[in-house]
Amino acid sequence: MEEIRKLLEDFLNIDFIQAVLSNPRRRDGVLKVKVRPIDKRGALYFQCESFTDTQAFHENLTAEDAVGRLTGYMENFRQMQIAVRTMNCTVLVSKKGKVSIRRKCLGNAASPAELSHNRNKKYILKEGTVIPFLQDLGVMTSEGRVVRAHFDKFRQINRFLEFIEDILPQLEKGRELQILDFGCGKSYLTFAMYYYLHELKGYDIRVTGLDLKREVIERCNHLADKYGYSKLHFLVGDIADYEGALKIDMVVTLHACDTATDYALAKAVGWDARVILSVPCCQHELNSQIESRELAPIMDYGLLKERFAALATDGLRAKYLEAAGYHTQVLEFIDMEHTPKNILLRAVRTGKANHLARQEADMCRSFLKADPVLGKLLFGNGK
Q: Rounded to an integer, what distance in angstroms lies between the CA atom of residue 143 and that of residue 292?
C-alpha cells in the first residue's frame, strides 16, 4: 500500500477534485467511499463519505488523516478513481495485493474544485432558478439567490430531495400517488417534495400535510392555492388520531416529537406504504424506561443517558420496521455540526416479515427493560 499512500500524499492538496473507492473484497462493511475537498473555517479538509448496506457516514479530515484513512480503506477495495486539476488517475489492486496506477493527463487543466459546502452543482434545486415557494418561505430572493441566513435550510431541502430521488424507482407512474406528511410545520420540505415530484419529475401525486398549528396550516393552504398546487392540501390534526386515508403510497414524518413519530410509523405500516421517510425528534420515551446497572457508566449521567436513549429508540424503530416487512436504512440527514437531530429513517416495503429483526428488537428491549410504543402498536409487545 506504500504506492497508494505516496499517491494520496501527492494528490490531497488544493488541486484535488474528488476520489471514489469501489469494488470491495468483503461485502460486510464499507462498500463505497467518496471523497471531496471542503473549506472549513478557512482550512482545507477532505470530506470522506462512506457507505455500508444500510448507512452513510461523514468525516471531515485533514490531508494527513485522510491519507491514512484512505490507505486503510484500500486494504479492502480493488479500485480507486482520483481526479485532480491536471489529471485523472485509476488505482487497481489485484487479488494478491499488487498495485497498478494509470494516469491520464488532461489537455486543458480542469477547474479547481469548489471547496464550499454549498456547491451549486450538488443541488437538485439550483440557486439562480426562481422557485416561488422558496421566495415566500424566505429562503430565496425574487432573483433566485439563496438568502445567506437560510442557506442551511436550502441545503436541508436539497438533501431531503436526494433521499426522494433515490426511491423514485419505487413510485409508480401512470396513477395518482397518495403522499402524507405528518408534522409538516411550515412545510418547507412538503412544498419542495410536491414541486420536485410533480413539477420536475411529472408524477401525478396528491399530498396532504398534517399539523396541529392552525395558523401555520392556513398559511400553507394559502400558498398552495397561490401556486396552483391543486393536489397539495394541509389539515389541522393529530397524528395518532388521523383516519383520513385507507391507502397511502408514501409517508413522511419530519421532527414529530417523541412517540408521535411512532404513531406515524405505525400508521404507515398499517397502510402498507411503499416508502417511509422519517426524521425523528425528542426521543424521551425510553429515557424514562431504561433500567440497566450494566450500563451504569451511561445511565448515571443524564446527558449520556439521553443520547443513548435516543439512539436506542431509533435503532429499535429501524428493527421494528424491518420486522414488519421493510428494508430500512439509518442515514445522516444533514451535517452534525448544524443539528444533533440529523438521523433519517428510510424504509421501503418488501412485504417479507423479518423474524430475526423482531427477535433482535425483543432482546434489546428486554435487556434495557423498556417497552417502546412502536413495538406495542405493531406487535402488541409487553414487558
A: 57
Q: Can you tell me whether residue 244 is helix, strand or coil?
A: coil
Residue type, 83: A
- The DSSP symbol for 146 reads B
339 pLDDT more than 70: no
Q: What is the mean pLDDT of the chain?
A: 87
Give whole-number Cα distances, 201 to 6, 132, 205, in Å: 45, 17, 11
- Residues 207/233, Cβ–Cβ less than 8 Å: yes
Distance CA 204, CA 334 (A): 29
Q: Are 34 and 113 in contact (CB under 8 A)?
A: no
Tell me the C-alpha distance between 203 and 27, whole Å: 35
Grid cell of 324 as nine digits:
414488519
- Which residues are within 8 A (CB) of 18 and not within 5 positions of it... i.e. 6 or more apart? 34, 35, 36, 82, 83, 113
- Rounded to an integer, what distance in angstroms lies between the CA atom of residue 190 and that of residue 357? 31
Distance CA(5)–CA(69), nearest Å, equals: 10
Helix, coil or strand: residue 99: strand
Place 43 in a pLDDT band, splitting at 50, 70 and 90: confident
Instruction: Please state, in angstroms and rounded to a whole number, the distance separating the CA atoms of residues 348 and 64.
Output: 39
Give the tens place of pLDDT for each residue, 262-312.
Answer: 999 999 999 999 999 999 888 888 988 998 889 999 999 999 999 999 999
CA distance 160 to 139: 15
**In the 8-state DSSP scheme, what is residue 196?**
I
Say how far apart CA 194 and CA 179 lie, in whole Å.
9
DSSP sequence for 358-377: HHHHHHHHHHHT---HHHHH
pTM tops 0.70: no
SS3 108: coil
Alpha carbons 193 and 250: distance in angstroms, whole number:
11
**DSSP class of residue 248?**
-
What is the spatial distance between Cα 344 and Cα 309, in angstroms, rounded to a whole number?
A: 16
